[in-house]
Amino acid sequence: MKLFDVYPLYDVEPVKAYDSTVVDKNGIEYLDLYGGHAVISIGHSHPHYVKKLKEQVEKIGFYSNAVQNSLQSELAQKLGKLSGYDTYQLFLCNSGAEANENALKLASFHTGKSRVVAFHNAFHGRTSAAVAATDNAKINSPLNTQQSVTFLPLNQIELVKTQLEKGDVCAVIIEPIQGVGGLDEGTTDFFQELERICKQNDVVLILDEIQSGYGRSGKFFAHQYHHITPDIISIAKGMGNGFPVGGIMIAPHIKPSYGMLGTTFGGNHLACAAALAVLEVIEAENLIDNARLTGAYFLSQVRGLSGVQKIKGKGLMLGLEFDFEVGELRKKLIYDQHIFTGGAMNKKLLRILPPLTVGKKEIDQFIKALQNVLIGEKV
Q: What is the rounded CA–CA span in Å between residue 100 and residue 149?
């Protein structure tokens, strides 16, 4: 049997990693400024994280959600405290797509309606409703397009208002900072008015914090820059530092019932141990402050770089938009400079999503390497 060939792969095979360094099978070290799609939040192989997982797997790794698991409650309490949402409810699952799938399903249960409003260049995952709310026809099969989703431009609140007033919308789903789409974001005025009209029209407001959450933006959640309170917040990626875990945080006015949502693997013992370790390290090492301060340093160093037209994002969720497509640039950064970066639907955007532990030394290394690539030299 061979692998189903759906990934265009770089010719690099990592075999170990620590902090923001990845080592390939030939012993070559790479600076990781992408974190495997923003998944690595507290650094590769963090000692506290490794210790907690080892201890847990020696006790019990998994049992179903038909029995008590106090680690889930411990995780919910810790997450509520650090995020500022201690009155919310937590449902645990396995991935970002699954988180958004459950968020949309729950919104439909709660309102009794079915249409969704999403935004141009949105990316919410690859499961049925989540991919239907993703603005990319290439990954939407005919099966997915049965969902009723209306796509609108960011920052045009009157268009949103018109759709919500039709009375059939169950949810508005939005990323506070678009990830795959290219780091565009709504204004504070837009988000605050969006919250108001969702409440006015009995529409569930879902903030997709799968990539932007867990301190990456310089706040625990990126929507907190806009002083809004969503009905549902979806989380994943940095939540487990590489262990598959996701979830939705649900406002107290949305009531549960037995069987409404469910999962086999979600919230298992190992997943909870990983997620708790991440929160403990974020708190102990002040990684949210580090994301904000290191992000500000990055911005100060990249201004004026040749070919850079725009600098996007917040904290350590950053993008450099060039006046050319960055595919070849990314290859040169990997193969010549040994630095991982990311791309986007916007082919001119270079995405920077490093572990939240990254510091000025690593930023300086990247800036020097980028300058050398841009002028056609090698370090």
A: 14
Evaluate whether the domain defined by 47-284 bears CATH number 3.40.640.10.
yes
Q: What is the pLDDT of residue 378?
A: 42
Report CA dihedral (226, 229, 230, 235) to the nearest 10 degrees.
80
pLDDT at res. 127: 94
Name, in order, each residue with C-beta under 8 angstroms of 102's C-beta and a sequence gap of 6 or more: 91, 93, 248, 261
Choose among 92, 102, 96, 87: nearest CA to 269: 92
Query: Across 127-245, where does the E strand assignment appear?
Result: 149-152, 169-174, 204-208, 232-235
pLDDT per residue as tens digits for the range 243-256: 999 999 999 999 99
| Distance set, CA 282 to CA 79, 176, 341, 358, 372 (Å) | 11, 21, 23, 13, 34
Start and end residues for every CATH 3.90.1150.10 domain found in the chain: 14-46+286-374
Report d(CA 133, CA 122) in Å as an integer: 7
Instruction: Check if the beta carbon of residue 307 is closer than 8 Å to that of residue 374.
Output: yes
What confidence tier does 306 reach under pLDDT thresholds 50, 70, 90? confident
Give 379's pLDDT tier (boundaries 50, 70, 90). very low
Reading the block at residue 49, the tokens are: 């994280």
**What is the location of CATH 3.40.640.10 in the chain?**
47-284
Cα(279)–Cα(287) distance, integer angstroms: 10
Class of domain 14-46+286-374: alpha beta
Distance CA 236, CA 247 (A): 6
User: In the structure encoding, which two tokens stand for residue 280, read together?
Assistant: 């403990």
Name which of 213, 198, 203, 98 is nearest 157 in CA terms.
198
Above 80 in pLDDT, residue 212?
yes
Cα first-last separation, the chain: 41
